[in-house]
Fold:
Amino acid sequence: MKFHEARNQITHSQFEKSEQKAILLITNLNSCSILNKTMKILGYLITCVALLLAAILSSCSSEQPTLPNVVVFLVDDLGYMDIGANNPDCFYETPHIDALAKSGMRFTDGYAANPVCSPTRYALMTGKYPTRVDATNFFSGKRSGKFNPAPLNDNMPLDEITIAQALKEKGYATFFAGKWHLGESEEYYPQNRGFDINVGGHTRGGPYTGNKYFSPFENPQMTPDSPEGDHLPDRLARDTAAFIDQNKDQPFLAYLSFYSVHTPLMGRPDLVEKYEERATKIKGPEFAAEEQIYGDEPRRVRILQKHAVYAAMVEAMDEAVGKVLQQLEDSGVADNTIVIFTSDNGGLATSEGLPTSNLPLRGGKGWLYEGGIREPWIIRYPGVTEAGTISSEQISSIDLFPTVASAARVEVDHDIDGIDLAPALQGGSLDRSSLFWHYPHYSNQGGIPGAAIREGDYKLIERFEDGRVHLYNLKEDIGELNDIAAKHPDRVAKMRARLHDWYEEVDAKFLQPKDDGPTPWLP
Ligand SMILES: [Ca+2]
Structure:
């Protein structure tokens, strides 16, 4: 606000009155003592200045737009191809998520920071690569193979600044519901990491207490428990909706982190029945063979979506998303609320019931192939995103913190890895050359210990047992079936060098020898 603009906002009558009185004073100067007159003139001038200052202040506050609310939907283990918006042939119905995509921006090349859970959740909370704190596997996954895994830090360190803390300091009301999986004891739980309210977030990575997805939930952080017959995604959505309505008159952050659609595979009976019937009409081979890290046998991978229970879980989650989105409308805050929808890792395709297919993406949860890391990413930012737009910018979980912080006008004065997505949300491109993944672990799903770097259309995967690399052109080969490393030695050398520089930058750790065992490869 410029000085003259503020001055113009002083009402004419206020100015005229002051000016008239000043003129009157000047013409009467002769009849009073000089001191007296000077004091009176000064008094009127002070009045003018005070009016001007008041105008500046009031115009500043009226010009300042309200801080936007933020709603984040994080779905556990939801694959890129599990929503209709990304997959027109999707077996599962996701009308509310698809409608959200139509009203905002959908990203085709959005990623999770890691192929499994806790590291991605750490990245979403902090804006940093999980490797910086050795949070490189789900907490506390320490499975070994030919070698021992890299050391794992299985708590989100207490000195990290979470997006909830950053917004809370800005005056936001902050709410968390669902799965947390970022620490083993209460000091690490959401209520101690920036959230005013925590419904159900604790140390476990799934709904493993009580009747699991159906009440009683017996979740130690969810009181009171639900009446019998309640379904977990619906309970979490109702609590989120209630929080939104109670806080509609002030800025808020609502982080709904579904336990769905993670195992145990349990669906609402009416939905299971619906999809069982539909599954009978789906023909074709359901499974194929994938390479794996354990033994010499190939691993089974699902290549056809037709799992009725999983489908029921996806649809119930979508219904819960719809309930929260409807509350934004009913509370009159939809036009000032940023909605973000994403997942923490790829769809589960190679273990624990093999419930979904990520085809044409290779692999799934626990793998560095696209099936393990490419995610649904939708952002609706009223006034910024254009409805129904699609962006192919490469984005990652690390970008949530800076994007939300920037929207909430929070100054970020500590180092993070993510970038503000605002240019992409406005339809432009991002200033980013590389994205990195680092997974020095033997996944429960058969995935290999390794790392990956993506630059433009190219993705390089480096294996940690023996240092082998693979290069794929994702534009021509999204299924990563055609390794072109041998044809592009220069590109391989450059991407590998940048990956190795990044290892140094984030102090990456690698596989360890077993007692008296062979020494693993090191970069
Ligand atoms: Ca997960």
Q: What stands out?
A: The mean pLDDT is 91. Residues 75-143+151-430 form a domain with the Alkaline Phosphatase, subunit A fold (CATH 3.40.720.10).
